[in-house]
Design goal:
There is one protein chain. The chain has 455 residues and is of the alpha/beta class. The protein folds into two domains: 230 residues, Aldehyde Dehydrogenase, Chain A, domain 1 (3-Layer(aba) Sandwich); 185 residues, Aldehyde Dehydrogenase, Chain A, domain 2 (3-Layer(aba) Sandwich), CATH 3.40.309.10. The protein has 15 helices and 20 strands. It is globular, with a radius of gyration of 25 Å. It binds nicotinamide-adenine-dinucleotide. The site of nicotinamide-adenine-dinucleotide has 27 residues, from helix 7 and helix 8.
Length: 455
């Protein structure tokens, strides 16, 4: 592999050559990407299973199929996204035309997270290609097999002056961040997001930061409990809780707390989460296993709590009588622990969320319009769902991103295209006429007319 500096220099030269701009070039590359992914589907499925025992079903449904539909969406919408947009012109500029030209930002850097390694690395690459950028992709090093496979299949099929995958951990990412990019798209934790943002500031590079946080789920006194719990359990224990938008903790109304816990227990037991059944994945590594294990307070475990270090397994665990001072409430859990906090008064529960960093997601389970509207109106968060969790990410028409500390910017569908696009504003004026009001000398007569026209 060439060194990092060379790759970025060559990508800049390639971008400046205009090669990536024609729409038919972009469409060809998107089709090629889909073909490459399809051709290596089995290898990708086997690689991720080796890394953390993710099943074929999970990998296809939660990673690959989403990529295929993103590519199809980009191909079908690219003409519309790249259209020059006419806008109206103000009186002062009569008789000019005004329009906005979408242009690719240029050489982009995409840094992926490990929890959905294919999805989080390739999903931003699709809008980058559609927008006409070149791409340097740095997947997470933690799932070593998926990182190796992504590097292999992309580097074998695309020229590094256009798309290059660079494998590595912190030293390689640091070296990448020293280069000048025209766009940085980062998915990962809040602390590393700050490092990326600081590095981007040096070159004034625009960023999208897809970060994390503690996403609450409200279980209210008027909800369809059976349906709420069914959806919630799927969303929480998917990927063994290692999902950025998983419900992190529950805020349950005191009047339905016991009903909620009974239903929750029955649903968890009915799911029989296990590696063998393909319904559970390993914790990604020992360090994360110890971190998650350290969040469990045995005195507050209502269900679960078993840990098998050899197999990197943590049982689905419910903690009750939790308050915001508990360790489990001090950081994003990112694992299969569900703390339950009860409330009497919705205003208090909303207040607890509002006085903390804005979550990436928020979920409200209710049949009551007033409760729904209060949560949606009063709580600020990246995105979320009513009577569901996680599924909002699957709709490409909903921009996906954080708010406040949970992220900057968003993507998916046309929002993804916008993340890699600069919108160039043009005032286009003919030369057959010119009004002299703005020119010197500035006379009282001219001022009178200006005041008439611009009052
Ligand atoms: P991470 O921040 O540890 O790593 C992300 C990337 O940054 C990796 O490619 C890693 O190699 C690199 N990196 C790590 N430390 C670095 C450093 N000191 N300097 C430079 N680069 C560094 O995050 P992670 O553990 O891969 O993922 C978990 C986090 O990501 C959670 O907080 C989760 O909520 C968040 N996440 C967010 C989204 C989203 O779409 N918003 C999706 C998935 C994960």
């Amino acid at each position: 592999m060439e060194n990092i500096e060379n790759i970025v220099t060559n990508q800049r030269a390639y971008f400046l050559s205009e090669a990536t701009k024609p729409i038919d070039f972009r469409v060809r590359q998107l089709k090629k990407l889909k073909n490459v992914l399809k051709a290596h589907e089995q290898e990708m499925i086997e690689g991720i299973a080796l890394d953390f025992k993710k099943s074929e079903f999970d990998t296809y449904v939660n990673e690959l199929s989403l990529l295929y539909s993103d590519i199809d969406e980009a191909i079908s919408k690219i003409k519309c996204w790249t259209k020059v947009k006419r806008v109206s012109t103000n009186l002062v500029n009569f008789p000019a035309k005004s329009y906005i030209i979408p242009e690719p930002m240029g050489v982009s850097l995409i840094i992926g997270a490990w929890n959905y390694p294919y999805q989080l690395s390739f999903a931003p690459m699709i809008p980058a290609i559609a927008a006409g950028c070149t791409v340097v992709l740095k997947p997470s090093e933690l799932p070593a097999n998926t990182s190796r496979i992504m590097a292999k299949i992309i580097n074998e099929n695309f020229a590094s002056q256009y798309i290059a995958v660079i494998e590595g951990g912190i030293p390689e990412t640091k070296e990448l961040l020293e280069q000048k990019f025209d766009k940085i798209f980062f998915t990962g934790s809040v602390p590393v997001g700050r490092i990326v943002y600081q590095a981007a500031a040096k070159h004034l590079t625009p960023v999208t930061l897809e970060l994390g946080g503690k996403s609450p789920a409200f279980i209210t006194e008027k909800c369809n409990m059976k349906m709420a719990v069914k959806r919630l359990v799927w969303a929480k224990f998917l990927n063994s809780g290692q999902t950025c938008i998983a419900p992190d903790y529950i805020l349950v109304h005191r009047s339905v707390k016991q009903q909620f816990l009974d239903t929750l227990l029955a649903e968890i037991k009915a799911n029989e989460f296990s590696f063998e059944a393909g319904t559970y994945v390993q914790i990604i590594n020992d360090r994360n296993l110890e971190r998650i294990a350290g969040l469990i307070d045995p005195a507050k475990v209502y269900y679960g709590g078993k840990i098998d270090r050899e197999n990197r397994y943590i049982e689905p665990t419910i903690m009750t009588n939790v308050d915001f001072n508990d360790k489990v409430m001090q950081e994003e859990i990112f694992g299969p622990i569900l703390p339950v906090i009860e409330y009497d008064n919705l205003s208090h529960a909303i207040g607890w969320v509002k006085e903390r960093p804005r979550p990436l997601s928020c979920y409200v389970y209710t049949e009551d319009k007033t409760i729904k509207n209060r949560v949606l109106k009063e709580v600020s968060f990246g995105g979320g769902a009513v009577n569901d969790s996680v599924m909002h990410i699957t709709n490409p028409h909903l921009p996906f991103g954080g708010a406040g500390e949970s992220g900057i910017g968003s993507y998916h569908g046309d929002t993804g295209f916008k993340a890699f696009t600069h919108y160039k504003s043009i005032l286009d004026k003919p030369t057959w006429i010119e009004f002299n009001l703005k020119y010197y000398p500035h006379t009282p007569f001219k001022l009178k007319w200006i005041k008439k026209l611009l009052s």
